[in-house]
Amino acid sequence: MLITFSVALIRGLHRLADIARGLAFAAVAAATYGLSEGYGNDGRRLLVAAATLLWGVRLAAHIAWRCRGQGEDPRYAELLAHGRGDPDLRALRKVHLLRAGLVWLVSLPVQAASYVAAPIGALTVLGAVLWAAGLAFEAVGDHQLARFKADPAHQGTVMDRGLWAWTRHPNHFGDFLVWWGLYLMACGTWQTALLSLVSLVAMTLLLTGGSGKRLLVAHMADRPGYAAYAARTSGFIPRPPRDPAGAARTR
Known about the structure:
Layout: H1 2-11, H2 16-35, H3 42-66, H4 74-81, H5 87-106, H6 108-113, H7 122-150, H8 170-185, H9 190-209, H10 211-220, H11 226-232, H12 244-250
Helix pairs in contact: 1-5, 2-3, 2-5, 3-7, 7-8, 8-9, 9-10
């Protein structure tokens, strides 16, 4: 993340931290795989490292492709426009170093699972299934949104199709499943399960109510049709959309 900060200063784009986040998780997984050799179960070590690398690299590649040719992210511009002191130092603290700390905290299941010597069991298999479901959910949601936004006829409108009709944040819910899966892979001992639980709680709070989500909702709030979309569509857990009459009664 310090390397990313240096590049962001040169290019004037702190949104590069979004790309680096996935790569940082991949780096943690690769480093942990090497350091845990001779300690953990080799099959679990390889499974956890490969799962995290695939998820992190896919996420970084998708965000890099989505942001190509764009300027600073409005969320970061708003964040850095207000406050005391040098804006670049605020970016270092509030964007890059904060993300570095969160990557370390959230990746505790990846680190802990690599040192579990117990054979692969039912929880590890269930974790792998949840991880695969989460990755698929996230990737499909990202693809649907990208295809929707690529059509000029949809400019300024709200994406409410496919997975986005069932939840306003398919990518967040996919992340949720991914990290629940990785957590289960770390539950080979009660010590690693307890240590990793801290990560799971932090990740869940970030996904369901983190600052990034709040800023995104604030950015979308004035878009035509968004209020009606939010009224009929779940904010996190996927479910069938409410009918307009039901949504009106809920409001």
